[in-house]
Amino acid sequence: MADPELEAIRQRRMQELMGQHGAGNQQNSEQQNAQEEAKREAEERRQMMLSQILSAEARERLARIALVKPEKARGVEDVLLNAAQRGQIVEKVSEERLISLLEQINTQTTRQTKVTIQRRRSVLDDDD
What we know:
- This protein is mostly helical.
- It has helices at 4-53, 56-68, 70-85, 95-108.
- It has a single domain (7-104), classed as Helicase, Ruva Protein, domain 3.
- InterPro entries: PDCD5-like (IPR002836), PDCD5-like_sf (IPR036883).
- One of its GO terms (cellular component) is cytosol.
């Protein structure tokens, strides 16, 4: 039933597909490695800029905040870096100034939580 020519064509096509798939995986892994390296370099630059902007105490406080609330610390870092890029920060940010900035951000981003309890009524419960 199996034609030898047809089987040979199938084998060649399978090898071609495997070769393309292998090259595709290698290219994807290279792109992924390049992206990871770029992210790592960007984070290093970010940390270096923060170390130039913040005093040692302020950096320590921000690191402690990052342990508990990483998204909040990231937001504060973004605010500080933007201010530095616009030239609004002339000297190193002290711990007291960082605390006041955190308080301002807290008042701006306070979230109201509301709890609503809905009780399910059973079909058998009768109010009358």
